[in-house]
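ok new one. same drill as before - structure tokens go in, u give me an amino acid for every spot. 468 of them this time. try not to just spam alanines like last time pls lmao
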């Protein structure tokens, strides 16, 4: 139904003093589209019987254009207690990596250019040597992420052939992403052996035929099978693989470059240990425990890595210059293990002292106590447990401190807490916590600038948004 009123013309609005600055900033064409869309929305609003005031229309369009200013991808404060949170972008990069990104981003660089002889070079050469010296592997390649590493390895080494894998290792990682499906898409056929809880060397041995391309071991880093269990070690599988002349490929998932027990953390197999145990190719993520940019690293036997590099899929999965620069500078930090915890944010957060976490929790707690009504909320510093996340030490937690905001009985309910969490997510730098036992828990382990967070809480109008 056509409304019985006249709206201002597009041209009049485009030339309005209040809107013209947006045309300068974002282009007249984009603003014109926004104006047209806005007017069309008014026209189709069925209940409209009178035109909105001219000023109201200008203001509405202004609001639309203001939103263009804000990127949808923004920094947040991770108070979830999961240090490597996949939904929050996993590892936070060290400063040296950020500088490296800036340097190769603002100027051309020798990404695939050999400065010695002026000929074409290989992009993976920028990290290959470092990966090898940190893992003991002969050669390395890097791709978009570890899932891409699995695709590339299987598509290169096992297309239309069989991959022998234990039933206990058919992992599903976040986002309903299942390794068996990825593997099938790589063109390889999975030959599952053993049972969920027990797999023996002879299970693998019995499954090897003419069609077998490789043996695969997957580290089930996001769950553990306990009780009546048996799995085959890397070393035993490697011996079998060698005897039968087929490669052993290990998907390590998180994979660390150094033994983290050195910093009092739970032990995870290092990439070097897996290489030494005899795996021919080890795959691991760059943005999990390693603490670098999103990428997948494949390290191992030089012949196999050469085959990976020749697969046309490598081109589709390769890393760009920004992430290569960041990865290289993160790997360089590993050359100096004594200073690693001070420089690599992931390790710094994982190894923070309880005292320093508690000091942050006290500051954040005091800030909330100052702005939230004590009649509605009880705010306190609590002991809590952090997780590493991204499938590293899935079954272990790290003692931590945080702030708990609980509704007082009878005064507030779960909705109040959810509304408070929503208000914190709406802050200029959103605060992301977790809901636990009808309370909001803000684990302070991953907090890196408590002052900024305190200032933000003190300046926030929470009373308005959550009837504090
Ligand atoms: C995390 C993980 C992957 C996927 O790695 P992305 O870097 O997220 O692609 C694959 N396999 C295992 C065992 C993992 O833990």
């Amino acid at each position: 139904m056509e409304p019985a009123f006249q709206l201002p013309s597009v041209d009049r609005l485009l030339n309005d003093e209040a809107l013209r600055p947006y045309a300068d900033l974002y282009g007249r064409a984009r603003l014109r589209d926004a104006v047209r869309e806005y007017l069309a929305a008014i026209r189709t609003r069925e209940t409209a019987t009178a035109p909105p005031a001219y000023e109201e229309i200008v203001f509405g369009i202004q609001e639309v254009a203001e939103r263009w200013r804000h990127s949808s991808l923004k920094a947040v404060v991770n108070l979830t207690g999961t240090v490597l949170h996949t939904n929050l972008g996993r590892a936070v990069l060290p400063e040296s990596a950020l500088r490296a990104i800036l340097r190769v981003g603002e100027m051309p660089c020798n990404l695939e250019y050999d400065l010695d002889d002026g000929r074409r070079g290989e992009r993976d050469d920028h990290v290959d040597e470092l990966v090898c010296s940190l893992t003991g592997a002969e050669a390395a390649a890097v791709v978009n992420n570890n899932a891409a590493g699995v695709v590339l390895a299987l598509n290169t080494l096992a297309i239309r052939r069989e991959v022998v894998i234990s039933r206990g290792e058919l992992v599903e990682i976040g986002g309903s992403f299942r390794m068996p499906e990825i593997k099938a898409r790589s063109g390889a056929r999975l030959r599952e052996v053993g049972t969920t809880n027990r797999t023996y060397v002879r299970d693998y041995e019995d499954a090897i035929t003419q069609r077998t391309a490789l043996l695969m071991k997957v580290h089930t880093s996001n769950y553990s099978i306990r009780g009546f269990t048996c799995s085959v070690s890397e070393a035993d599988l490697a011996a079998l693989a060698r005897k039968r002349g087929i490669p052993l490929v290990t998907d390590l998932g998180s994979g660390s470059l150094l033994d983290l027990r050195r910093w009092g953390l739970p032990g995870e197999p290092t990439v070097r240990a897996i290489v030494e145990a005899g795996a021919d190719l080890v795959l691991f993520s760059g943005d999990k425990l390693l603490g670098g940019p999103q990428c997948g690293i494949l390290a191992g036997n030089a012949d196999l890595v050469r085959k990976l590099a020749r697969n046309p899929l490598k081109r589709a999965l390769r890393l760009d210059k920004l992430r290569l620069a960041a990865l290289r500078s993160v790997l360089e930090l590993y050359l100096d293990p004594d200073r690693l915890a001070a420089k690599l944010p992931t390790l710094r957060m994982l190894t923070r002292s309880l005292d320093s976490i508690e000091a942050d929790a006290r500051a954040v707690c005091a800030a909330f106590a100052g702005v939230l009504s004590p009649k509605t909320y009880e705010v306190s510093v609590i002991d809590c447990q952090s997780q590493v996340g991204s499938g590293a030490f899935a079954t272990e937690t790290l003692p931590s401190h945080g702030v708990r905001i609980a509704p007082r009985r009878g005064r507030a309910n779960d909705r109040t807490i959810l509304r408070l969490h929503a208000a914190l997510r709406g802050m200029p730098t959103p605060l992301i916590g977790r809901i636990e036992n009808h309370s909001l828990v803000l684990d302070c382990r991953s907090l890196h600038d408590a002052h900024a967070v305190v200032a933000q809480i003190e300046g926030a109008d929470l009373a308005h948004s959550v009837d504090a």
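The pocket of pyridoxal-5'-phosphate is lined by residues 145-147, 171, 173, 218-219, 221, 251, 253-254, 285, 296, 390-391 (CB under 6 Å). and btw The two ends are 44 Å apart (CA to CA).
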